[in-house]
Amino acid sequence: MSAAALLMAAFVLYTSGFGPWPNLMNRAIFLGLAFILTFGLYPLRKGDRAGVSTLDVLVMAAGLAGCSYIILQFDWIMENPAESTRVSFWLGLLLVALVLEGMRRTIGLPFVIVALAALLYAWMGNHIPGHWGHRGFNLETIIETLYLTDRGVWGQVTGIVTTVVAIYVVFGAVVFFTGGGDTFVHLSLWLAGRSTGGAGKVSTVASGFFGMISGSAAANAATVGAFTIPMMRRLGYRREMAAAIEAAASTGGQIMPPVMGAGAFIMAELLQISYLDIAKAAAIPAVLYYLGVGATIHFEAKKSGLKPVPPEMIPPIGQILAWRKSAPLFVPLALLVWILLSGYTPQLAAYWATVAGIVLYLALGSWRGAALSGRAMGALKAIETGGKGLVMLAFLGAGAQVIIGMITLTGVGIKLSELLIAASGGSLVSALVLTALICTVLGMGVTTTADYIFAASVIGPALVGLGLTPFVANLYIFYWASSSAVTPPVAAAVFVAAGIAGSGVVRTGIIACRLAIAAFLAPFMFVYAPALLLRGSWAEIVTTALASGLGVIALSAGIAGYWARRASLLDRLLLLAAGVCLVVPGLLTDALGVGLLVAVGLKQRVLYSG
Predict the structure, then answer these.
(1) Are 384 and 169 in contact (CB under 8 A)?
(2) Which of 12, 194, 434, 485 is surrounded by the fewest CB atoms within 10 Å?
């Protein structure tokens, strides 16, 4: 499995740096390697002993056979579109079944149920009466679409995962496991550790840093949380609060440039726009998110009397930024941003950043035999970790394409969009609220990226029909899909953080939602204030961002129940009202919000003085 993971990562590095093979071949190679890793690393049933059974070997072989046919018969498939043979039919049927099983093992049963429902709808649609029925498609047509065309398993989402998303997973693993993780945490300690409730703020800053390169809420919570949650517990944070802080902070990594989550790369390809445009537009909302989480932590810490991190736990800045330690982190990140800004593709930027990280890690250490050998093994381990991290993404892409292929084949996406418009009564506000609810419900059973892909395919056209641009509609959906990582009852980041802290999942999730209130407001804010997406004059962008930031702080104070001192019920209501006024665009509402904040401050000052 280690060899297969290294081969998977090597394939991704090669195709990112030197260009991919033709679409179907490239994606078939990627999925074939994913079959080996999935059925070797993920047991048939949860709780089974680790190891590769005879059944797993047979399933691997079957998956490889299905992928090999596409590679070996590529020319024939291209020359004979929409034609299938008995061999291709049975191999296609087998491959689709194995994709569903791979989804079940890596992502979970809910996503499989959605895919099965899409397949049954395509097959049995002629038996459904009324508006939702269709002429139906036989099994041969369905399998042919899914297996022999780029509208099925080998479609656009699989291609995006294979060519763009995968290299960033490898890059994140290389940066983190070659010392970047320690540098992030130590730098966060130095930046935030000395302030009130410093441990919680360290978690927020460190998770934001790591989120820049990982784009995964669960991975963020697992890696950073292993350090920050025990530290928060030692410094007085309750179990649920410590876990909630890490979960909320980790979730923001999916919307934090320059890397963001996998959904952002998929969005760029679906909309045929530059990923850099998405990263730039997401910058202010991402900062607002972390400002909200950090402010809530600050006010909660003030109210609870939590102390800063002890000075002896904070390393000196000179040690943190020592060239040999920091270069493998900062140089690749700087190189990544520079190449992106130069107009090159995201995958080429990540390729050179990954290569730079590995070279610097090996070159800046000791050149003595044992030390160099140890660093070489460390670099291989980092690459191997990146390869193993691609497994879930491979089946996420292939599984999403099964659903999208059936939505396209049956035309049900148009009907669902019409239903959303009808349910909202033609009101954009109602449609936005319904979209948020749908993304939240979907996110209870699937990953953020799967949530985004499905919602963008079905709901996106409806929002565009109500007046949003495709970019704003997709970004709105992506933000709500990201928030599902902290939304009970099934929230990936909450489960991971609660497991580390030993806290209750539901209680942790409720607190995390409260901390992440800015995540639930940011999408509404940028829909009605495009300046937050860098649309407009610089004066408008700056004033809108400042007002929104102050509004987020006011909302955090109202939620936490603290401003200059512990807030009464009236104070909290006034703070919440001030926050709402400030996040609603307009000079009049901004002035009213500032006035309410001043009034609360004066009220508390007078009462405190008395």
Answers:
(1) no
(2) 194
| Residue 561 backbone phi and psi in degrees, to 5 | 80, 40
The CA distance from 350 to 441, in Å, is 33
Q: Look at residues 195, 280, 200, 294 and name the one whose alpha carbon lies nearest to residue 252.
A: 294
Count how many Cα atoms sit within 13 Å of the Cα of residue 485 in the half-sphere of its side chain. Answer: 35
The b-or-e profile of 338-352 (16+ CB within 10 A means b, else e) is ebbeeeeebbbbbbb
437-448 exposure pattern, b = at least 16 Cβ within 10 A, e = fewer? ebbbebbebbbb
78 residue type, one letter:
M
What is the four-CA torsion angle of 9, 12, 14, 18, rounded to 10 degrees? -160
Bridge partners (DSSP) listed for residue 562: 566
End-to-end, the C-alpha distance of the chain in Å comes to 70
Omega before 489 within 30 of 0, i.e. cis: yes
Domain boundaries, the chain: 2-151, 157-392, 546-610
Which H or E element spans position 92? Answer: helix 86-106
Q: Which helix (H) or strand (E) holds 239?
A: helix 239-251
Which SS3 state, helix, strand or coil, does residue 562 take?
Answer: strand
Reported for 189-195, long-range contacts at CB under 8 A and 24+ positions apart, including other chains, are: 189/309, 189/313, 189/314, 189/315, 190/314, 190/315, 190/316, 190/317, 190/320, 193/308, 193/309, 193/313, 193/314, 194/308, 194/309, 194/311, 194/314, 195/298, 195/308
Give Cβ neighbours of residue 121 (< 8 Å, ≥ 6 apart): 128, 406, 410, 412
Mean pLDDT by 10 residues, the chain (610 residues): 93 92 92 92 74 86 94 88 82 94 85 88 86 84 89 86 86 82 82 82 81 70 81 85 88 79 78 86 88 87 83 84 83 88 86 92 77 84 89 86 86 78 84 86 70 83 88 90 75 81 84 80 87 89 92 90 87 91 86 91 72
Distance separating alpha carbons of residues 608 and 592, to the nearest angstrom? 24
Global confidence as pTM:
0.78
